[in-house]
Amino acid sequence: MSIPEREYKAQPGRRRLRMLFNITFRDSPSSFKAVQFGNGLKTAPHEYTADAHPSRSSLLVASRQNTHSPSINKFMDENNATQHCSKPHRTHKPRDGKCEPADPANTVTDRLNALLQSSGPGYILSLCANQSYMLQAPLNFAAPQQEISTLGYPTGDERAILVVNGPVADGQGHTTAVNGVCLTCSGVKLRNVQIDGTRRGAPTTEGGGNIEMGGENSDQLIEYVRSYDPRSWSCLHIAEGSLNCNNATVQNNDIGPCGSDMFQQWADGISMSCRNSVVRNNMIQGATDGGIVVFGSPGTQIYNNTIWQTLLGGINMVDYEPFSGDFTGTIVTNNTILGGFATDSQEPSDVKGNNFQGAIIKIGIAIGPRTWFGDKFGNNISHSGVVKDNQFGGALSYAIAITSAHNFTVENNILVGNTSFIGARGPNCSETDSVPAPAPFIVDSDTTEDIFLQPGFQTIADGDALTCVLPPNGGDYWPFGTNPSNTSHPTSAPTPEGGTAPGRTAGIAVGVIVGVLTVGLAVWFIRKWALKRAHSKYLYGATSNLDK
Questions:
Q1: Cα 13–17–18 angle (5° rounding)?
Q2: Bigger pLDDT: 520 or 286?
Q3: I need a surface site. Which of 10, 209, 335, 539 has the fewest CB within 10 A?
Q4: What global pTM score does this model have?
């Protein structure tokens, strides 16, 4: 049906531009042409095509078909830039209530990676709460400021779970859920998700951590993430790039368990190798290698973290590579490190009890390569860090151990609650090394210099490879006390068939049916009124939008 021509006069806007348009609808009501007769600058006509869907309230100019007026062209270019008129605009925020589903599971990895690759800077990949995403390969950030998160930013068990589910054979295979080390990954964010590495007691698989971030980038953020059971060496790794990774923030995460306490089957909680970064307010449970391993990372602040359960080390400042032992400006402060506590029943007269898992932290904070690696790095040292105001409790072998270190400041670190220092020479200790007796604070005076130490440090003659000590094989050696709990707990591995449970799927189906019936009834009553109003409302919106 032909729609008669109507003439509209645009009101003068902020640009002081008055235009007269003759708007003629084409045969299809979905588009129209607007012919400009005059603009006060030139009289040559200009024709534009635009979407004329009645539900739109703005004039969406699709193409310019005449370029006689530079002034008008400039106006339309600027208006297009602010109103997103010239072509469909890709939003960088998730649509209200919209998330990318986990099903079908056999396409989920490709679907999510395609969105990251094609959507450009600032894109938010919004995942669905209470769904498990069975990944066959890592999700790869592709542009600056992109984000992967759960819709609504929940912080508990309802966070979406990214499941490392790709193949593994002969110690090789899929180990990483999220990869943010591309050359254009500055400012990317991983927020409010869970990462299940699905190791499930298997031997270590060679590869990256559950989460691989950093690289030659700056300003990345990882927060409110639960990462556990990695197949490889770390729950969360921030890589150094070409020693130019800068200003990563790792905060409010719950990490672990990570790895196994079997010999050389360990895994880190957080592995930080990025300059001028922040690691704060994280809860790290059962990271069997190091709770937080600081690879130099000059200028990095490590504070307000809580670390507990079986570990070789709580916070490690022992790695010479990749920053040649440089800890300048690196400050470890106000962290709580708790070893194992007795797990048997406490009688009124009991001071200590047994821990049936032998849970212990061997070194609360380790400083210097020799504490960990013995003479592997020769005379190399760690230098110029600060360790202060940290607190230790539970069963440990050593609260702080220092060897092969120069120019460190260690002060105001304390013991809190019930504490015991236990352990003895293990089968992996070198025959040539003398293992010092367990004690709160020890320092090897032969390999350290220019160190400012708090009172109470015990001088030892040999502090090499202290992680070879083992806890007692049973007995009442553990203090009574309690460890904190993670904000969420590991879940069993989802079935590979899909990411939603049958009960949840059925509930969604019932909800959809009820919703459709309710909406349908309402639509029947308002349909005629809406149709009558839509066309006139559109015409008003189209013309009034021209003066913006």
A1: 100
A2: 286
A3: 539
A4: 0.73
Q: How far is residue 117 CA from its own chain's centroid?
A: 18
Higher pLDDT, 237 or 7: 237
Instruction: Name residues whose C-beta falls within 8 Å of residue 423's C-beta, 6 or more positions apart in sequence.
Output: 360, 362, 397, 438, 469, 470, 471, 472
DSSP-assigned beta bridge partners for residue 221: 189, 249
Could you tell me the two tokens for 411? 């002060």
Rg of the chain, C-alpha, whole Å:
31
Asked if residue 248 lies in contact with residue 220, where contact means CB atoms within 8 angstroms, the answer is: yes
| Alpha-carbon dihedral sign for residues 340, 229, 400, 362 | positive
Task: Using the predicted structure, report yes or no on whether residue 10 has a pLDDT greater than 70.
Answer: no
Check pLDDT > 90 for residue 508: no
Quote the Cα angle for 335-284-328, to 5°: 45
pLDDT at residue 93 in the model: 56
Amino acid letter at 332? V
Residue 548 has pLDDT above 90, yes or no: no
Whose structure tokens read 């367990």? 438
Instruction: State yes or no: pLDDT of 358 exceeds 70.
Output: yes
| DSSP-derived secondary structure letter, 419 | E
Domain spans of the chain?
Answer: 6-89+524-547
Kindly report the number of other CB atoms within 10 A of residue 401's CB atom: 30
Contact indicator for 19, 39 with CB cutoff of 8 Å: yes
- Token pair 């395609």 is found at 114
Edge-to-edge strand list for the sheet holding 405-406: 382-383, 405-406, 448-449
Instruction: State the Cα–Cα distance between residues 260 and 229, nearest whole angstrom.
Output: 9
More confident residue, 281 or 486: 281
How many Å apart are CA 371 and CA 360, to the nearest integer? 17
Q: Where are the alpha helices (DSSP H) in 394-478?
A: none
- The closest of 427, 356, 367, 428 to 399, measured between CA atoms, is 367
CA-CA distance, 338 to 308, in Å (whole number)? 5
Element (H, E) at 71: helix 70-83
